[in-house]
Structure formats: structure tokens, C-alpha cells
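PROTEIN DATA CARD
Card holder: HNH nuclease domain-containing protein
Chain length: 316
Origin: Psychrobacillus glaciei
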Amino acid sequence: MCRDWKTAEKWYHAVKLYLKERLKLDISPEKSKIINLRKHESAFLGFTIRANRKGKKRVAHTFVKAEKMQKIKADAKKRLEILRTSPTTQNAMRFNSFVLGLHNYFNRATHVNLAFSRLAYELGASMYNRLKPIGKYEHPNNPPPVYKKFYGLGSKTYKIAGLYLFPLGIIKTKNVMAFTQSITPFTEEGRVQISTRLSKDIKQEIVLLMESNIPTRSVEYMDNRISRYSMKKGKCEITGMFLQAQNVHCHHYIPKHLGGNDKFNNLRILQKEVHELIHMTDKIKANTLIRILGITESMLEKINKYREKCELEIIK
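Structure generated from the sequence above:
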């Protein structure tokens, strides 16, 4: 990002020569160019960016690239067709993973709500034709915690094989904030900044965790449990749900009876039900709990990795 054309040209040629002479790499002429963002938009990794006027200054307006939107639309239709021909819990979970993955990737675009609203509108007829015969279109009634966290209860969605599908058109924009390198756990100043930036909710829960006592656990375990909870901002490492102190379960990634320890890197912060799912041996109960919790395919992959470390069968 340069303030004038001459500076941009200098950087362009400097980077091009460095890549060629030092690393023996050629750049793509189609993808590497100097663009005036005040007059034209630039595409990068599925996003478009343009510097539009706002009052007396310019601000970045970002959107989803048109070609990317068409690819998403085509992919969504394929997944809807799979659901139509095989309306199983597993395929519903895969569709939810697809939607949540898109939302997590594109939620930093400033105009992403408009992009996905259009996409949902264009796919409306396809969803109706493919899903109406195999499911119900309704307001979620007592949906799982993951659904509540990301989508709330305001809009209708399809219920397939006992699972509510994540609505493609509802996406929360995530503000991209600047960061400072002074925030680090390796300096006194950095640790102070980390402490002051903790939300009030997390601070309160950390105090409760510090006051708790588990006689069968080591001091190392108790300290690292608090550190892990703080680093993860109080969220379950699989579902992303915020956990209050009384609901925090701390799982040993490598179980102690298999050689694991109480060190920070071997602990995982989990919600109670997910922790139970990792150690559950009854497959029928496990599949029921997966539906109740609204576990997506990506979440189930993580759970199965944990189960493998515990020398348990994976859940399919």
C-alpha cells in the first residue's frame, strides 16, 4: 500500500527483482500489477478491495469476488443435491461445515452481508425444490448451542434428519482490528496489556477457577488449566462456546495413563458434553449427543483425533 504511483513502481520492481535474482522465482503478470484503489478494485484470495470516499478520507470497502460467488453457488447446489438423494445426519453435518467454513473465511469483508444475502436469494428456489420433500422449513425450536451462537433464532431454516441447516444468508461481519507487537507474554509490559485487555466476563471466571480446588490434581495442572482457559478466551476448543467456570472441563490430549502430563500443551479446554463425547463408548448415545449438540463435520474430525489419542474407536 503506497500513497503515490512512483513509490508503488519502485516497490513493484524491487520485489520483482528480489524474487528473480535471490529466489529464482517469476511473478505472474496477470496477478501482479499496480492498481489505483481509488479508481479500480483489486482482487485478492476471493475478496475484492477498493478505497472509497467517506467524508474527508478514504476507507476500504471489501466484497466477495464475483467469480468466487459463482463457484460457491455451484458447490452449494452440488451439496443440496447430495442432501436430496441422501438426507442423512452425516450429509447435513457436511453441509453445515461448508456454510460455517464460508462464513468464517469471508466474515471480514465489509459488505459480506450483501454478498451472502444475494447468494441465499439466488439459491432459494434450488433449496426449496431439493429440501422441501425431505425436511421441514421452520423457525428453530430449541436448536443446539452452536446454532444459537452463530445464527440466533430469527430466521427460518430447513430441518433435515433432526439437524437444523445453517442459513447461508445470515453472516456476522467481524471487524478486522489492528494489532501491536508490544502485546506479548514475554515482556512485563506485554503481560500487563494482555491482562487489561481480558473481557470482564473472562476475568470473573478466571477468579472463580483460581478459587477452585481439585485435591486429586497437581499444582501444575491447576495453573496450566487457568492459563489455557485465558489463552482460549474462555471458549471450548472444539465448539467455540464460551464456558463459565463451573462448566469448564480440562481434557488431557494424551491421557495420563498413556504417558501424558499436566503441561500446558497437553491440556484442552472443553465443555462438559464434548468431554463426555470424547470418552463415550456407546455409539448410539454418542450419535444422539452429536445431534443434540449440533456437532459439525469439522468438529467431529477434532473429536475423533482426541479419541484416537485415547485409543478409542472413531465415531462415524
